[in-house]
Design goal:
Layout lengths: L2 E6 L20 H11 L3 E6 L2 H4 L7 E3 L7 H8 L8 E5 L8 H10 L5 E7 L11 E6 L2 E6 L7 E9 L1 H7 L6 H6 L4 H5 L5 E4 L11 H10 L2
Length: 224
């Protein structure tokens, strides 16, 4: 069974424009994410529509995608089965500052059971009111809902997904609803189209997604 890591990214981030190219200890964020993922031994690709991002990645590992892609998952699905041909795909979002191989392995294994799975970890009390943290409600590894509002229960949804080619077949039949757009949360598309997205628990103590400038400052404080 073959597995690839796909890293979707764009320059026009709503909450932190241009974050893909911010300096992360001497290299752009997207280059850091790519380098770490590639060091895990998987075929690794950056999926983007932006030349500025492509310019900091070795040409062979860039997959050009449409600027009309609605989100990271949509960007991945546009490449699966067309430019890329693997049995499993691990989507590591381009703002995951500290990629974790154990999370990737957990999702790779989960692909044996289901066509789409998102990773989650324990929701810390300090993060319960943080709107940049995704709060996930799930039972028996099935996700029921996600949101960004304050929540004193549930888990923290992470920016890692596992797909098989079947996921693309289903995704292409879905409708994007307004709540997904307002929440900026692509996992809701599976739920709102009466499909099933599963989840797997992981330990990821260094999880930090660069969603806003404050996250970048936190990374510089704790990891630089």
């Amino acid at each position: 069974m073959s597995t690839a890591i796909v890293i979707p990214t764009r320059l026009k981030s709503t909450r932190f424009p241009g974050k893909a190219l911010i300096d992360m200890d001497g290299r752009p964020l997207i280059r850091r994410v790519f380098d770490i993922c590639q060091s895990f031994g998987y075929d690794t690709y950056v999926l983007t529509a932006d030349k500025e991002i492509a310019d900091v990645i070795t040409k062979h590992f860039v997959i050009w995608t449409s600027p009309d892609c609605t989100d990271g998952t949509d960007r991945c699905m546009s490449a699966i089965g067309d430019e890329l041909h693997y049995d499993k795909y691990i989507n590591v979002q381009g703002d995951v500052s500290n990629p974790n191989i154990e999370v990737i392995k957990a999702l790779e294994k989960a692909c044996d059971d289901h066509y789409v799975t998102q990773a989650h970890t324990t929701l810390k009390p300090a993060d319960q009111a943080d709107p940049t943290i995704v709060k996930m409600i799930h039972t028996n590894n099935v996700i029921h809902w996600q949101g960004r509002g304050e929540m004193s229960y549930g888990s923290q949804g992470l920016g890692y997904y596992g797909y098989t080619p079947e996921a693309k077949e289903r995704w292409n039949t879905f409708t994007q609803y307004e709540i997904e757009k307002r929440e900026s949360m692509e996992a809701l598309r599976w739920i709102q189209n009466n499909d099933m997205i599963k989840t797997v628990h992981v330990e990821d103590p260094d999880a930090l997604e660069i969603n806003e400038p404050k996250d970048y400052e936190l990374w510089k404080k704790n990891y630089k």
